[in-house]
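Troubleshooting log. The previous run stalled partway through. Resubmitting the same two chains, unchanged.
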Amino acid sequence: MSDITPSQTVGPFFAYGLTPKGRCEWAPNGSYSWKETVGDNLITPDATGQKIHIEGRITDGDGVQINDAMIEIWQADSQGRYLHARGEQPRPNAKFTGFGRSATDKNGVFGFDTVKPGAVAGPNGKSQAPHIVVCIFSRGMLRQIYTRLYFSDEAANATDSILNLVPADRRGTLIAHKEAGTEPSCYRFDIHVQGDNETVFFDI
Amino acid sequence: MSLIYPKESLNAYPKHLSPEYKSTVKRSPSKPLIIVPHTLSELTGPVFGHDAVQDGDADLTKQHKGEPLGERIIVHGHVYDEDKRPVADTLVEIWQANACGRYVHIVDQHPAPLDPNFTGTGRTITDKNGYYKFITVKPGAYPWGNHHNAWRPNHIHFSVFGQSFLTRLVTQMYFPGDYLFPYDPIFNSVPDEKARLRMVSTFDLENTIPDWALCFRWDIVLRGREQTPLDNDEH
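Second attempt completed without errors. Output:
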């Protein structure tokens, strides 16, 4: 058995490599010409389901915005299927990768355009409430931190086996709140890296 | 093939809070992380086709009109899982400072020159043997504000995906024999010396190209191994 390669911080200068079309203008001379591999719009022409926008602000232990973070999300399609094997039969959402990456802007705000995921299989044969896995990188983080985003308008949250492992008084930090009167629906999901209202992070 | 991802392997990682690296003090969780089982949501992960990269993306010396200044180098190796099986078809992204130790980023105010012929970013997809290869120039050391007279050792940033969202890895590759190692709180945030040394590439004379470029070899090991019978309660 081999021993794994340790993690190191993404540092402050990843933008031109990982988020060249990001939300801050970090390029000394105009914009970065490097093609983006992964962006913050996951919606493909073949994507079915409810189109949504996710927006949030990430702050540190002093409540100060983190303007040099990178947020990655991983989710199922609207039918609750992950794109985890290639060479499958053509099917709806075949082009929907379920993976997105957003830089933060100068106010620490990130965002994604995507579709609301369906329920996916969970432990003990029960399905999980619709959710998105969120992975956060930034200067000052020597390793990524994982959390999950759940949706405020899903009754299935009450019986979700992962959410129920979280102390009840902290569960709210994982709920993205649907903002009234937005079309497509905007779900707000702020991330507090540290402090009184600290977001729940997972040891996985 | 489905792998398991024992959390004990993560003992090789730095702790979230590593006060010698000052930025971790306000950017690390202070409450206990919640232990949850791995579900389909963690055991799956992004898949990239070869169309994610373009010809030439792995050669950082050919992205501009002229050649960048500095020592031309080849950096290559394999991406493996914990059983040393190759991780094929996975995206590897890199970014680095130029030969003078300067990044193409407005926050980097180190008074060293930018190189108009060098951006410092590359990407590739591993082949069926998990092999990757970049051509670049050796990045310079540079000062930073962590403490008095703080300098980062020469390094290249790596971002790797692997077979699930649990194998996601962002790390840094260092160069052998760097005299700045003892003073760098980021390098030394990895508590175990053997684990630290796994971030250091080796000089590869065999693949150094005469009259053209030095070569460094660096293998990356991601989380994930096959379940062994001993671990299986049903046996």
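Takeaways: The first helix of chain A runs from residue 15 to 18. Chain A touches chain B through 78 residues (CB under 8 Å).
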